[in-house]
Give the backbone structure.
Amino acid sequence: VGTKSTNKTATTSFSTNEALTPTFSVEDGDKGIEVDTAFKISFDENIFNSEGDELTKNDVVNDVVRLYKKNGGQDVDFGAKVAGRVITITPDEDLEGGTEYVLAVNSGSVTNNSGVTNQAYSVSFKTESKVIKTVTCDPENKETGVSVYVNPVVEFASPIYKSTGGDVTSK
């Protein structure tokens, strides 16, 4: 008296309606961001362009990301690199010091394997106040035949201050 059992299998699939959410390398409201910073935008899963094809740097520059001055909305030209789930944005030129910028991911510009797209996301940040570009040194860089008893001198074109305020002093 034996019994015969049959195993049955079923496949269930489901999806969520949650949009793809990026993580930015700067946080909303950050201050003192260096003017030559490259920005990273990361996702928790593989991303594709809005048609579901491989995401390219041209997609990023033309459709996915916008970097602009907060006041006036002037766009900043940038290059892009896509590596897996991470987009790296590098401005073509240094950003202006003491200026507020917005880094934005446009709504519906990327999708995942299930066809879920992203909402619009953005962060605003402010670059460091003043950027000192003119520095002279004595002895000069790579100068040869310098005495071991030299007192090096570094001169800045304008006054420099601590990021916390106050004068910079030597020890």
Remarks:
- The longest helix spans residues 57-64.
- The longest strand covers residues 121-127.
